[in-house]
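APO domain-containing protein, pasting as requested.
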Amino acid sequence: MESPKQPGLFGPSLSLFYSSILTILRRVYFPARLLHHFSGEMRVTLFYPEASLLKRLSRRLNSTLFFSSEIWPQPPEHTGDQQLPYTDVPFPRRTKRDRKPYVTPMKTLIERAKLERKARKEQPVRVLEEPPENGLLVPELVEVAHSVYHARRFLLSALYQLVRFIPVLRCESCDEVHIGHVGHEIRTCTGPKSRFRNALHVWRRGGVRDVVFFPKCFHLFDRVGKPRVGHDERFSVPRIPAIIELCIQAGLDIEKYPTKRRTKPVYCIEGRIVDFESVVEDGETEKSFSFENVKPFVHSYSLVTKPLEKVFVDNNSSNLDQLSNEERNQLKDLSIRTLDSWFEMTSGAKKIMEKYVVNTCGYCPEVQVGPKGHKLRMCKASKHQSRNGLHAWQEATIDDLIGPNYVWHVEDMNGLPLNNNLKRYYGKAPAVVELCVNAGAPVPDQYRSMMRLDVVSPERDEVDLVA
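Structure tokens follow.
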């Protein structure tokens, strides 16, 4: 007969002891009021000091606890078949040392690179069929490129008129921008000597460049044949706004910045692009690259600025109260058209970016439109010594191509400035949207949640009374 199993070293009293410890930890270290800050399930794993003791208790005690909490924020309510969009207030990166988040996960990028390497070994010589990788244009995006270019032109011309009536302020020490007569009192300044001012901003008058920012990149004559700019070519290659370069590569023709247009696809031989297109005569090349036969693209926005310019240029007042009813209506119409051009430019740029690659540095705001980033050793951001000054290129987003400059939303421009103690009740919006809303344009639906229009902020003397 087998001898009966002897009880463990510590007996059943030890399991009761640790169960009481778990109960105390749940009551002391994980109060119920903290569980509302988590969504879904929260897993807490307890680590014991003695590894041998943990091995003995692994069969008797499950050391993993599950706490359920309410989902926050609540999902938007359904109104019929439509769903209200929800966008939270954007927060900047914690520190400049942190890298920008990847648009595509790194595992997906690695798997994609392995598949491309495998396909290259199986078929070393192949014809690139899909545009724009084969050097040809995407036909359905040519008109989109023209509309984006003209929408940007109208946006800049309209912003120069709106800035005369709606004041724009910027900080002297950092990149903070504010729309209003008086700057806010939120302590978010990170510039030099900001600690002596308790992180308060030093405001001065700003302009259109502070409202929207278009980073520049190098212009590529042949985006497929020579996609990279070397370090020695940094002074010979022109730099233009990245959104214009994106429109040029998508089909826009500008005489000042010529580009190569192919009629036949290129070949890929062991990862290198080879162009076997027949060499035409010199007269034909000049004819193909001349812009005399190009049909001009007339946009409706270019016909609107002329009658409005006469009214606003003559009036030098910056106070909306001094305007007549007719001038206010024209200012409101101009702000509505400005918002329409903003949305047309951003939506069109997103469509083009789905086909045409745009790269950005993971640590600095440098942008390059093209299949690859340039090789200039000019990065001065974090960890640039390990890269020898080269940029850490990754996939860009629309915010990298068009700097929206998020600002705090002000409900009453003639009221008191925004208080630092109430900053969690304030919302944000792109500076263009905030400028147009203060000029009379209706608030767009996609920015209502971001601007927190449904939140009633308490008064300054009621801060201590609000939970």
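Note for the archive: The two ends are 69 Å apart (CA to CA).
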